[in-house]
Amino acid sequence: MRRASTHLAFGVIALCCAAVAAYDGLKLKHAHDVAQAVAVTLADTGNIVRTRGGSGDASDPPEVQLARAMVLSKAGAYADAQKLYDGLIQDEGNSDLTHAALFDLGNMYVHQATGGSSSGPVRSLPLLEQAKQRYRQLLRVSPGDWDARYNLERALWLAPEASEGADEPDVKEQHDVKLRGAEAEDLP
């Protein structure tokens, strides 16, 4: 009896180990397939940019779509890259890819607004506002993302926001004279 229960326990443990190995094998195969698809995407950079489509196959894994969006962004096809990034952001299946898409989209907006030069003049304030919005959206989900914090600070430095209800009074309030007990009609 004791020997049979030992063999049974060993058999259960062996089956569990085989299941874990099969699961890891499937994950490894998926990672290998994605790596090949990304390599093909990166090798086919010129074709992606020339066709200006960039949407690729809808059955592509999200990792490939992210790589395609990055290629389009670096090539200057910002509208196509934005479509791919927005599609990845809407798909909430993989939070890591959503975070990467938000971060890269914010970076693309900053790069586009500054014309690729971090020391150059700002060309478009609405793009910087979009970048700040994406960084804030990312920080709401992942407050510990220091890269997003840094890039948000950089975007705020390039395009400071006017604070509502600032400590400084309005210019009209600074010049109005107020006397206790007197009304505006009483003054000459």
UniProtKB/TrEMBL annotation:
Gene3D superfamilies: Tetratricopeptide repeat domain
Keywords from the UniProt entry: Signal
Signal peptide extent: 1-21
Domain of life, per lineage: Bacteria
Stretches for region Disordered: 161-188
Comp. bias (Basic and acidic residues): 169-188
Transmembrane segments: none
Record flagged with keyword Signal: yes
Entry protein name: MxaK protein
Annotated source species: Caballeronia mineralivorans PML1(12)
